[in-house]
Automatic annotation (TrEMBL):
Belongs to the acyl-CoA dehydrogenase family. Pathway: Amino-acid metabolism; tryptophan metabolism; Amino-acid metabolism; lysine degradation. SUPFAM superfamilies: Acyl-CoA dehydrogenase C-terminal domain-like, Acyl-CoA dehydrogenase NM domain-like. The lineage of its organism: Bacteria, Bacillati, Actinomycetota, Actinomycetes, Micrococcales. Residues 251-391 form the Acyl-CoA dehydrogenase/oxidase C-terminal domain. This is glutaryl-CoA dehydrogenase (ETF). It comes from Cryobacterium zhongshanensis. Residues 142-232 form the Acyl-CoA oxidase/dehydrogenase middle domain. Its EC number is 1.3.8.6. Keywords: FAD, Flavoprotein, Oxidoreductase, Transit peptide. One of its GO terms (biological process) is fatty-acyl-CoA biosynthetic process.
């Protein structure tokens, strides 16, 4: 038994490890983080995720547990953060998304977006006020950048912040803002006379309203919101002093994109594992479908793309540790990982047959979630243009 009284976790080794032994490429510290996240995902997310997805239920008590495990803002230094390596953070994202994209998204919104914004650009007082509680999961943050007219062109942002004496007054709307209705603080990006600036908005502030978006067929066990800022009045020191212009939010988006490079491969691994298991047990024409050439060809193609995606993620993690990772390289990873994860999920569904569209297997849930992951933090097209600009030296946006 664990100290909490729960049964000691029994965490199965992924079936793909029969061919791809990722642990051989990792440090002991990285393996520890990976196993810790796998145990959390197996024992705290997987037992309820299918029902939570069906019920559109966000299991809020897991936030503090993620904090206690050290996963929130784990790549940051100080203020109660773990100070873990880039690869360790990536491995945690992979394991959490192998359970469900919504929980990796929470870790990304909290740590890579909201906490990173405060850590990178905040004053010491702002860091001390917010970061320790956020690292512990006692406080939740959100990152309000995207607007109803579209997320791919933040330069066209319509939310404004104007000076009124010593105060700031924010007016505008944001859309698809993860965690906004349960957040304690929102990092809101707005146009000012001096360009785009970031503001820390306690969510109990008058004029701030977050409304969960209904009707989602994807990311149903997590929360995304419309946010209205109706004359939100903030003190002068609510602005993030270290960020002016779009380089501020983009610096945070690249942190989140790095986590997606890893996380999408977790969803892919879950789908591939389900397909391998089903290919061994499902019999057609008198033998398991895994003994048939077409099925083995599909599994082989899926494994190759999964392994390539993880090796790319590992390469990017090593570059990040050295401080040489570029935005274009991150775009290569995000574009490849999500695109191939969706392809793997589709092939897995075909191997599962009709049962693949039921919640007996995780594949359709992952496939639906990955369509959201494909869209946020830069669509395929945006990342293609980032890569194209790096190759040609010309901007095509």
């Amino acid at each position: 038994m664990t100290a909490s009284g729960r049964p000691t976790p029994l965490v199965a080794t992924p079936l793909v490890d029969a061919v791809f032994d990722l642990d051989e490429l990792l440090t002991p510290e990285e393996v520890v983080w990976s196993r810790k996240a796998r145990a959390f995902a197996t024992n705290r997310i997987l037992p309820t995720i299918e029902q939570d997805f069906e019920d559109r239920f966000f299991r809020a008590e897991l936030v503090a547990e993620l904090g206690a495990a050290g996963f929130l803002g784990m790549h940051l230094e100080g203020y109660g953060c773990a100070g873990a390596s880039a690869v360790s953070y990536g491995l945690v994202c992979l394991e959490l998304e192998a359970a469900d994209s919504g929980w990796r998204t929470l870790v990304s919104v909290q740590g890579s977006l909201a906490m990173s914004a405060i850590h990178k650009y905040g004053s010491e007082d702002q860091k001390q006020r917010w970061l320790p509680g956020m690292a512990a999961g006692a406080l939740i943050g959100c990152f309000a950048l995207t607007e109803p007219t579209g997320g791919s062109d933040p330069a066209a942002m319509r939310t404004i912040a104007r000076r009124d004496g010593d105060d700031w007054v924010l007016t505008g709307t944001k859309r698809w803002i993860g965690l906004a209705s349960v957040a304690d603080v929102a990092v809101v990006w707005a146009q000012t006379d001096a360009g785009v600036r970031g503001f820390l908005v306690p969510t109990e502030t008058a004029g701030f309203t977050a409304t969960p978006i209904a009707g989602k067929l994807s990311m149903r066990a997590s929360i995304q919101c419309d946010v209205t800022l109706d004359g939100v009045r903030l003190p002068g020191d609510a602005v993030l002093p270290g960020a002016t212009g779009l380089s501020g939010p983009f610096g945070c988006l690249n942190e989140a994109r790095f986590g997606i490079v890893w996380g999408a491969m977790g969803a892919a691994r879950s789908c591939l594992d389900a397909a391998i298991g089903r290919s061994r047990s499902r019999e057609v024409f008198g033998r398991p479908i895994g003994a048939m050439q077409l099925t083995q060809a599909k599994l082989a193609d899926m494994l190759v793309e999964y392994e390539k995606g993880v090796l790319l993620a590992l390469h990017l993690g090593r570059l990040k540790k050295r401080g040489t990772l570029t935005p274009a390289q991150i775009s290569v990873g995000k574009l490849n990982s999500v695109r191939e994860a969706i392809r793997i999920a589709g092939l897995a569904r075909s191997i599962l047959g009709g049962d693949g569209v039921t919640n007996e297997f995780p594949v359709m849930r992952h496939l639906a979630n990955l369509e959201s992951v494909r869209t946020y933090e830069g669509t395929d097209e945006i990342h293609q243009l980032v890569i194209g600009r790096a190759l040609t030296g010309m901007t095509a946006f």
